[in-house]
Design brief:
- By secondary structure, this protein is mainly alpha-helical.
- The protein has one domain.
- It is built from 5 helices and no strands.
- Helix 1 runs antiparallel to helix 3.
- The protein is elongated and about 55 Å long.
Length: about 130
């Protein structure tokens, strides 16, 4: 029962977190939070990734552990690939999914940093 709850929790939380990373920069009220989530994602991928492998995500790791405890053997190399496969049934190549994921991440990270700096400067000017 507990693992079933965690499985659903990770689907909802991780998907919402991912979607927020994609669009959170667009709304002035969420830009600071978006910058934090983008930095957390970058830390996980690029700093923790030094020890656990490039693109490492603790959420994905924990979700896979829960799914394995439930008897699922449907692991993917990335949560995004896994999500696309389960939502659409399409099995795109890992390289395509990774390339699109990193591209979107980089664009949203640059937008978030730029807009947060712009908003901060605007606030400082009065």
């Amino acid at each position: 029962m507990w693992y079933e709850f965690l499985n659903i929790f990770f689907f909802v939380f991780h998907t919402a977190f991912t979607l927020f990373n994609i669009v959170g920069w667009a709304f002035p009220k969420t830009r600071k939070l978006h910058l934090i989530t983008i930095l957390l994602t970058a830390f996980s991928w690029f700093v923790l990734g030094i020890w656990y492998g490039w693109g490492y995500c603790a959420c994905t790791d924990w979700h896979w552990q829960v799914r394995e405890a439930l008897g699922y053997n449907d692991r993917s190399d990335s949560y995004i690939h896994f999500l696309i496969l389960h939502v659409t049934g399409k099995n795109f190549s890992k390289q395509l999914v990774d390339t699109v994921t990193v591209s979107i991440f980089l664009v949203t990270a640059v937008l978030s940093i730029w807009l947060n700096i712009r908003d901060w400067r605007k606030k400082e000017r009065g």
